Amino acid sequence: MNPDLPLDQARGTSGGVEAPAMGAGVDADDLDHARSQEYALLASLLLAPPDADFLARLSCLQHGDATPLGRAHADLGRAAASASADAVGREYFDLFIGIGRGELLPYASYYLTGFLNERPLARLRGDMMRLGLERADGHCDPEDHLGTLCEIMSGFAGNHFVVPANDEQDFFARHIAPWAGRFFADLENAKAAKFYRAVGTIGRLFIEIESEAFAMEMRRST
Predict the structure, then answer these.
(1) Which residues does 58 contact at the CB level (< 8 Å), separation at least 6?
(2) Where is the stretch described as Disordered (predicted)?
(3) Residue 18: its pLDDT value, please?
């Protein structure tokens, strides 16, 4: 792995707008590209509110396919088309920052222990060090922020981070699977969520798909 490759390389590539449907008829390279783009989309939306240009690009998603994930993308496209950047910025503040704290705390430590900066963060930092990953300059959130974890998964799926066999699946199982689905379900039902309700649905469905795919790989390998 190239230790100089910053984690924020994936940020802003949010080409989830161009990701092909993840199903039959998609070869492995296209599937990994779609996965990488989906993770990058989630990372971008969790780490910062979308600006007007990003919302305009997301509005192109209004005609998704008939799968649950495709319908969720279409819902996100419609939400983007009807939202302003200022309104989504205020929503992002209420959800994730707030006065004192936001409605939701998108950190593994909080979801797994009830407190910030706990053992899950230490385990993550150990794995990142082993894999040669470092937090990007200027990024102040603890590394167990779900947006950062999605960036890392995007890098794995897109082959931006070269890791030993099975490390991608192990990283997902250790740092994302135990709590990310619950966070996205909470985001779907958050009081402040309007635009971000659709983000929650996409995230929940995508984590379910990833969990099932990794479980199938594990069964095939045993």
Answers:
(1) 17, 50, 76, 77, 80
(2) 1-22
(3) 30
> Residue 116 has what DSSP assignment?
S
- Mean pLDDT, range 103-115, rounded to an integer: 98
Contacts 24+ apart (CB under 8 A), 91-97: 91/49, 91/192, 91/193, 91/194, 91/195, 91/196, 92/48, 92/49, 92/196, 93/49, 94/192, 95/187, 95/190, 95/192, 95/193, 95/196, 96/46
> What are the backbone angles phi and psi of residue 205, rounded to the nearest 5°?
-65, -40
Instruction: Give the pLDDT of residue 27.
Output: 63
